[in-house]
Amino acid sequence: MSADDGREPGTTRPSGKPNHQPTKQLGPVTLRRQQVDGGSTTDQRLLDTGGPTDWLHADPWRVLRIQAEFVEGFGALAELGPAVGVFGSARTPADHPSYTLAEEAGRRLVDAGFAVITGGGPGAMEAANKGASEAGGTSVGLGIELPFESGLNPWVDVGINFRYFFARKTMFVKYAQGFLVLPGGLGTLDELFEALTLVQTRKVTSFPVVLIGHDYWDGLVGWLRGTALAEGKLSEQDLDVLTVTDDVEEAVATMVRAREGRFPSPPPRRAE
Ligand SMILES: C/C(=C\CNc1ncnc2c1ncn2[C@@H]1O[C@H](COP(=O)(O)O)[C@@H](O)[C@H]1O)CO
Known about the structure:
Layout lengths: L22 E4 L2 E4 L9 H6 L11 H19 L5 E5 L9 H15 L3 E4 L5 H11 L4 E6 L13 E5 L2 H11 L3 E3 L4 H15 L8 E4 L1 H16 L12 E4 L2 H15 L10
Parallel strand pairs: 3-4, 3-7, 4-5, 5-6, 7-8, 8-9
Antiparallel strand pairs: 1-2
Helix pairs in contact: 2-5, 3-4, 3-8
The structure holds the ligand C/C(=C\CNc1ncnc2c1ncn2[C@@H]1O[C@H](COP(=O)(O)O)[C@@H](O)[C@H]1O)CO.
Family: Belongs to the LOG family.
InterPro entries: LOG, LOG_fam, LOG_family_nucleotidases
EC number: 3.2.2.n1
């Protein structure tokens, strides 16, 4: 519909075409015949609170929610400073050695000047947030809306709740300079392999990934080297960023070294 034909945009128009079928123009999208919703106007649907709400959940509108997640995430984390992501099982109980290691990791990372970013959930995430918060550092939780809602753990001091995994995952890799990965299941493996893929494809550079716990991770690393690498499915270089240790202090030292490599002292200012 043209803007100068005297009719409200997006409403029914006699076109002169067969049967004067209603036409609706939504930006670049044209709808005709039964695709046009019952001839109601935009403001009518806005004010008619009893009306159908399906449009709220339509994919084109979902884009705005997705966009909002990026805007809110970028806004909340813009001034975070150097940070490390800590990942691990949501099911790690508080009396498990992995919980203690995650807590120690959170604390040591803060002592080394890092903010700590986790998935904001229970288990290893909670432990890392606890260590970071108790050490007086910045304890970030990027939560995810799940059908079995567990909410942000109580040790998250800066929390954002995401609906979309992909928006949340962007925040992890954008704001963390490396990952410490404790024993975990599918969620942890997803986060681990996303980081390795982004390094392999040079989407992120200088991004150390430290797996904590030889007993848990050696089998996986052995398979990556003995099968995936041996059969040419990845290259030695792709695994260069990956180390395994039982020593949290060493894991944090790896992050510090990477930070020093990535952020050398700034060049002297030029005289004006
Ligand atoms: C399973 C339970 C709660 C799940 N709650 C979560 N909250 C936030 N983030 C989560 C949650 N579950 C998984 N994640 C993400 O995946 C990683 C852990 O997954 P895993 O399969 O447990 O290894 C973790 O790093 C999060 O980013 C009930 O307790």
